[in-house]
């Protein structure tokens, strides 16, 4: 489990295409500290499993395999060598939940629609797939490229977020422009509530007709 608090801006240093998968090498000295084979690291909000840890003159990097399903359902397939990525290690048991509950399971992708600069922050509008709009509410939580953010305005096919200078400086949202894709993960609690209510309604309907 993650919290959506980005620890480090990493960099894609190599991509090996393997037909129905790809192997990424990602530089991230902070998140690789103490990491080992089999550990999880979120890359732009996608939970990946560490294959190897490698050292070179420029620092530590790790490799991770990305399946075709993940490449198709997330924006990782659009990354190239030199792309900057948001990195976060899993939350430690007993640690502070600084953001919100993030699984690292991308629900879909959106795109930056526009950016409006204010004196001390920036308002960013992001497109939203229609099938995810029911999970997004004003003042609710959403994960964008692995960043835990609060929704300012929620529309049928978009939402907006306010980005403080720290977020702009320490994450990929500081440099993404209109048209750039982003990974979206909605609040998992909303999906569980929907599922439970659906089951309750189904049970009630069945009882009413029996």
Automatic annotation (TrEMBL):
CDD domains, per database record: Riboflavin_synthase_like (cd00402)
Lumazine-binding repeat copies, ranges: 1-100, 101-197
GO MF entry, a single one: riboflavin synthase activity
Catalytic activity, as annotated: 2 6,7-dimethyl-8-(1-D-ribityl)lumazine + H(+) = 5-amino-6-(D-ribitylamino)uracil + riboflavin
Organism field: Streptomyces endocoffeicus
NCBIfam families: PRK09289.1 (NF006767), PRK13020.1 (NF009566), ribE (TIGR00187)
Keywords (A to Z) from UniProt: Repeat, Riboflavin biosynthesis, Transferase
Source organism phylogeny: Bacteria, Bacillati, Actinomycetota, Actinomycetes, Kitasatosporales
Enzyme Commission designation: 2.5.1.9
Domain Lumazine-binding: 1-100, 101-197
A Pfam family annotated for this UniProt entry: Lum_binding
Function: Catalyzes the dismutation of two molecules of 6,7-dimethyl-8-ribityllumazine, resulting in the formation of riboflavin and 5-amino-6-(D-ribitylamino)uracil.
Family annotation (PANTHER family): RIBOFLAVIN SYNTHASE, RIBOFLAVIN SYNTHASE ALPHA CHAIN
Record protein name field: Riboflavin synthase
Keyword Repeat: yes
Gene3D superfamilies xref list: 2.40.30.20
Listed SUPFAM superfamilies: Riboflavin synthase domain-like (SSF63380)
UniProt pathway: Cofactor biosynthesis; riboflavin biosynthesis; riboflavin from 2-hydroxy-3-oxobutyl phosphate and 5-amino-6-(D-ribitylamino)uracil: step 2/2
């Amino acid at each position: 489990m993650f919290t959506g608090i980005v620890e480090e801006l990493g960099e894609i240093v190599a991509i090996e295409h393997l037909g129905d998968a790809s192997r990424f090498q990602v530089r991230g000295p902070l998140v690789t500290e103490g990491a080992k084979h089999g550990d999880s690291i979120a890359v732009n909000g996608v939970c990946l499993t560490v294959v190897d840890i490698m050292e070179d003159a420029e620092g530590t990097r790790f490799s991770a395999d990305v399946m075709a399903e993940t490449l198709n359902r997330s924006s990782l397939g659009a990354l190239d060598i030199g792309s900057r990525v948001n990195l976060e290690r899993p939350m430690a048991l007993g640690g502070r939940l600084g953001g919100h509950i993030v699984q690292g399971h991308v629900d879909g992708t959106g795109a930056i629609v526009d950016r409006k600069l204010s004196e001390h922050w920036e308002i960013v509008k992001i497109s939203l797939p229609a099938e995810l709009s029911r999970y997004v509410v004003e003042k609710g939580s959403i994960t964008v490229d692995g960043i835990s953010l609060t929704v300012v305005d929620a529309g049928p096919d978009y939402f907006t977020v306010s980005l403080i200078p720290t977020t702009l400086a320490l994450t990929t949202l500081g440099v993404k422009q209109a048209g750039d894709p982003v990974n979206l993960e909605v609040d998992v609690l909303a999906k569980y509530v929907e599922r439970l209510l659906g089951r309750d309604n189904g049970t009630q309907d069945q009882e009413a007709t029996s």
